[in-house]
Task: structure prediction
Amino acid sequence: MKSEQLSVAEQAAITSGSDFWHSTPVERAEIPAIILTDGPHGVRLQADSGDMLAGRPATCFPPAVASASTWDPELLRRMGEALGDECRAMDVAVLLGPGINLKRSPLGGRNFEYFSEDPLLAGVLATAWVTGLQSKDVGASLKHFAVNSQETDRMRVSADLDERTLRELYLRAFHRVVTQARPWTVMCAYNKINGVYASQHHWLLTEVLRDEWGYGGVVVSDWGAVADRVAAVAAGLDLTMPGPDDAGDSALVVAVEDGHLDPALLSRAAGRVRTLIERAAARQPGGYDAEAHHALAREIAGRAIVLLKNDGALLPLPAAVDSAGSSPQSVRSIAVLGEFARTPRYQGGGSSQITPTMLDDALTEITAATSATVRFAPGYRVDGPASHSTAAGEDAAGTDLLDAAVELARTSDVALVFAGSAFETEGADRDGIDLPAAHRELIERVAAVNPRTVVVLSNGAVLRTAPWDSHVAAIVEGWLLGQAGGGAIADVLFGRVNPSGRLAETIPCKLADHPSYLDFPGEHGHVRYGEGIHVGYRGFDAREQEVAYPFGFGLSYTTFEYSQAPPWPRTRASRCGSLSPTPAAATAAKWSRCT
Ligand code: BGC
Result:
């Protein structure tokens, strides 16, 4: 690469993409193009120019909804490193992630891509992920800056909030990652903040990000987030994606020539993009071991699973049946029920959708894990979003599926019911937090014939567990676990992994209890963040609101007993029980307080 000065036209060209995933090369100055692609829980490199969604095979690690439940920055760092290796193998310079927006509402369509309702947890985990990725000389793109907590009207809605809420909640994780991990790029959001597009927000992109936080990297736009290139560069945006954007390039040149844009601002933006490209060009190509990455995906998934309930220590199930045909808990036959056991839900829809290198399903893994007799019935159909509203018994075929599953449950020692949300995707918020009717019906009817019913959930955002949770013995919150999730679920069910996941978001008794409920998703182009700083558990705690399962909750197979504990000050936290000194075994805790 030469160190030649770029002309104004070249500076304008380099500050937009040349196509969907490449920056613009400048041959005269020997500046190559680099690839920027999604992210965040895998490398989605478009394989075929005609099909946006078909990516080259890559490891689908657990999406953030799951990895956050590990509460383990070390695991996130290792995931980042593995992603870095895959990027090098595919010549990717910048991976578009992590997504660290706060889960303001359980309805958020991209909650599965985001870490938490708590900015400290999100910030710590994302810092580790970025550090791991960038240790491989691959850049991160911290997104979506900022206040992008809903999909409804996402390209233009104005998130209206006060400065304290903005700084203490919605910018806090960004501040941590920017100052501690120095991501190569930060991606601005689509939405407006208090009436100004994030891509044109001088206070956000320059005064806060650069002047206060000392950020020296590139600010890239979300794909299609820039309406006015001149205003964006003036505000502090460097790279507009995707491209080409000939009209925008020309507008920049004209604005410099007629004095509407300070040439130093364009030159600085172009200089930052050039530095990014030079940095990326210095990395060495690499390769990766797909089996080893699959094993890492399984390890993270196993640590992400949250055991919500385990009455009578039903779990873990014994793996072996002795020669007399009985196992320690007389589990000789297991009914595996629910199509999700065979056809896993392991990631959400949209730009983060990965083509996995391999895919485990729970049914196969359970069958391999035990010498008990395993029988399967699908119980319901998986037919996309419609299954949200389809009750299994609504038609003859559905009734047959349901009846067959119930019969299997009745004649088995243990029933494992796989249920969850049908659909979560970028571009649309959810319309509720209930399980699909068919799944609820399956759980209720199975629980009525088998007291040893375990529900295994697959979902990208919290689901309401009331009232069915009081009818089942155990609940395993399995989120969306990535391509190795099937094996990870078997690991937890049979005790090869002691569940240690903890909730990164509160499970409310019902949607209307949630602090965001009255002000989500807004109307007429505005969403008022009316709950202010009382996001997630902060709102439940401040209002002394009962919840199904609190932020931070999760059981394990270990029992703990407290004895001779000194008197404990009774605080709000102890009211919830998490700090309670009562000498109770953790596994016996009865959490769901919803009526
Ligand atoms: C999403 C980003 C993504 C980009 C590129 C946008 O629609 O909001 O998260 O990185 O597309 O696919």
Observations:
- The chain is about 30% helix and 15% strand.
